[in-house]
Amino acid sequence: MAASNSILLNLKTVKFCTIHHSAVTPGARNIDELTARARSYDQYHKVKADKYSFPTKTKGEYGYSYISYHFMIARDGSWLQTQDEKYARYHASDNDRGENSHNLHGIAILIDGNFETEMPTDAQLKTAGNIIRMLEKKYKWNLNVEGHSKTALYYDKVNKVMYYPEKAGQAYTQCPGKHLLPLVKSKIVKYANNPSPVGVVKPKNETCKEKLENKEAQISSMIEQIKNLNNRVVTLKRQNEVLVSNKTVNEGRIDDLRKQLSKCREGQKNLKENQVRKRVESILKGILSKFR
Ligand SMILES: [Zn+2]
To answer: Ligand 1 mean position to 281 CA, how many Å?
Structure first.
C-alpha cells in the first residue's frame, strides 16, 4: 500500500540515500550494457508498479517512466541518471513508516550486479561516493547512506507491528547483497567525503623519448611551414613589381592618348575655321564678280 499519492520529493527534507543491487549476475560492464539493463528494469518496475499500485510513474525526463532508482552504476564506474532527484521513488520498502519513509526523503542508487555472489568494483563504489557528494553539494544535503536491507521494514501483520529487519530476526530483502552491504559505510560514505576521481580518462603516459620525438616532429613541420611562407612572400613581391611596372607603362600610355586627343581637337578646330574662311571667301568672290 502506498503511503502517499505524492510523487514529488520535498528537496529541502531529503536526508537519505539508499544503496541497492540489481541481483542480476554479472553486473553491467559499461554504459552500453547499463543502458540496456535500465530499459529492462524500467519494464520490470512497470509491472511491479501495477501490482502494488504505487504511483511510480513520472514524466520520465531521462526516458524511463517506471524505474525506481534515481541513479545506476556499471562495473567500470560509468553511471546513468534514470530519474530526476525531484521524484519520490518507491524502493526502500518502508512505506509503512508513513511520512517518515525513506522513499519520501531519499534518493535511490543502484549498483548493478548481484553482490550475494560477486564483488562490486572499486570504480562502482567511487562513483556512488561521487554521486552522493555531487548531490550533497548541489542541494546542501547531509545524506545518511544505507543499504536497502537497513531501510526496509518487516511488518508483523498478526501483531500489526513494524520492525527493523534485524529486530524481527528476518531480513525483508538481501539487497544490496552481503558483499556490498558492509562496503556502504566503509567505502561509499568514505569516498563521498573524500573526492576520488573515477571515470576520468587519463592521457596516455608519454615516455621522454616519445615526447622528444613528438616535439621534433612539430618543429620540422613548423620549419616547413616557414619555408612555404617565405616562398610565398618572394612570389608576392615579384607580382607586385610587375604590377608597379605595368602601372608606369599604362600611365605613360594614358598621357600619350591625352596628347593625341588634344591634337585631334586642335585639328578639328582648324578644319572648321578653314571651312568657314573658304565659304566666306567664296561668297565674297561671288559678290565681287557681280561688280565687275
Ligand atoms: Zn534494493
So the answer is: 131
